[in-house]
């Protein structure tokens, strides 16, 4: 009975002790506050797609072989060009690489032909000429072979020398701009290339003919002229071809039709005059310097006369006279030296007529075999004084002084005896004596 009572008492004391500890814990910490925040930290790993397991070592890599241009070179030009194209070489760069190389090769071969043994002293002139013709024929064949190779490799008829001239500084850039300013750079290069190649063909043919043109030679020169026109037609549209013809005429034939020559024409008038001239002359034969070879003198004279008549009708008699004076250097000298001084047109015309008449008389005096040198000198001196007075009256003091400053020496020389070596030595001795 006493053992049971002790067990009950022990359990009661243990429960009281637990209740007391719970109460103390609540009193120390207190209830949770509504304003407190929960701080949560999240760690995320970036997934790498197709990443190898960490435990596996990375696969070994092989180093790519280094590139060198020598790997593309070949003794065969066709293989060399194919290798360059295979690595993506642009066509313009390919051209710039191959053309100089081909030119160097064929220059060496041409030098071998030109450096052939000299003529023997016992050979006749005909034999030496025949030997030279053989060399020329070999050089021409070599040139054609080079062109064929370039055509095969680059798909176009090209000339390294022509390209070099086009790219060189001062290759008539202003003139080229006037002539071909209506086209883009690519077409300009093609046109200049065509002109250069066809001119070279014409020169080669004329060299072989040695100035004696047979009917078959004239036929072949006509064919070269037609080939030039056809080549240009493949580059230019019809309207561009017409523009080219007119611009060539302006530069080659009617460049004197400008205000600097005392001729006032508008742009529209100049274009129409150019068209009239292009219709009465073979422009492309003129460009190739073949008009004298493939057309007779009579036929060329008929074309010139037709143009003059068409021009006179178009501009009228008075302006036609201005055009004719504008061709003469004598009138241009008078006009340009007095242009800004207000000299009247009638005074300029009068001075020009006096100057031209004096030149004609001076030629007659110098050609007169019945006169002695002393008589010629006296007559020319009188003519010079007379002409000087006439010019001074026409131009006025200011205009005459301006003319003398620019053309006084030319006036004196044209109305004097020609300076011979003997007279020149006398003049030098006189100068030394005076000093």
How is this structure best described in words?
With 435 residues, this protein is mostly helical. It has three domains: 70-158, no CATH class; 169-323, no CATH class; 328-435, no CATH class. It contains 18 helices and no strands. Helix 7 runs antiparallel to helix 8 and helix 16 (345-367) packs antiparallel against helix 17 (373-414). The longest helix has 42 residues, at 373-414.
Number of strands: 0
Largest sheet: none
Tell the overall outline.
Answer: extended
- The H/E string reads HHHHHHHHHHHHHHHHHH
Total helix count? 18
Give start-end ranges of low-pLDDT stretches. 1-9, 16-54, 421-435
Radius of gyration: 47 Å
What is the helical fraction, as a range of percent?
A: over 70%
- The overall average pLDDT, rounded, is 80
* Strand content bin: under 5%
Structure summarized in a few sentences:
This protein has 435 residues and is an all-alpha fold. The chain is built from 18 helices and no strands.
Mind sketching the topology for me?
Layout: H1 2-29, H2 77-86, H3 91-114, H4 125-154, H5 160-167, H6 173-180, H7 185-209, H8 215-235, H9 238-252, H10 267-279, H11 283-287, H12 291-294, H13 297-315, H14 317-326, H15 329-338, H16 345-367, H17 373-414, H18 421-434
Helix pairs in contact: 3-4, 7-8, 9-10, 10-13, 13-14, 15-16, 15-17, 16-17
Q: Key features?
A:
mainly alpha; 3 domains; 18 helices; 435 residues; 71% helix; extended; disordered C terminus
